[in-house]
Amino acid sequence: MKRRGLLCGTITALALMIVPFPAAASERYGPAEAAALVKQGIIIPMKAVVAKAEKLKAGRLLEADLRKKKGLYVYEVEILDAAGIVWELKFNAANGELLKMEEEND
């Protein structure tokens, strides 16, 4: 009986490793979806957040996108500074509040 329990546990563990899980509660939104949310007054325009990010961290804008994480709309902005470091800044998309700024470690 112990061997059967061990075998079932092993099979279950392997199945969990193979079955794809949805992204960790994060959805990405395109320009049309973001524009609709701005029009509804749910979020502020991305350009306002990008301008704020560029004031906080000088450099070249690499990417900016809108995501929804745990029910909160978040703008993620990546900036490459003069030293070649990529910075990721996260903002509350509803009000532009800076939530986090860190070096990207990819």
Helices, strands, pairings?
Layout: H1 2-18, E1 26-29, H2 31-39, H3 46-56, E2 60-69, E3 72-80, E4 86-92, E5 98-103
Antiparallel strand pairs: 1-2, 2-3, 3-4, 4-5
Explain the overall architecture.
With 106 residues, the protein is an alpha+beta fold. The protein has one domain: Roll (Nuclear Transport Factor 2, Chain: A), CATH 3.10.450. The protein is built from 3 helices and 5 strands. It has a 5-stranded antiparallel sheet. A hairpin with a 2-residue loop joins strand 2 and strand 3. The termini are far apart. The N terminus is likely disordered.
Short description:
This protein has helices at 2-18, 31-39, 46-56, and strands spanning 26-29, 60-69, 72-80, 86-92, 98-103. The protein has 106 residues and is an alpha+beta fold. The chain has one domain (24-103): Nuclear Transport Factor 2, Chain: A (Roll), CATH 3.10.450.40.
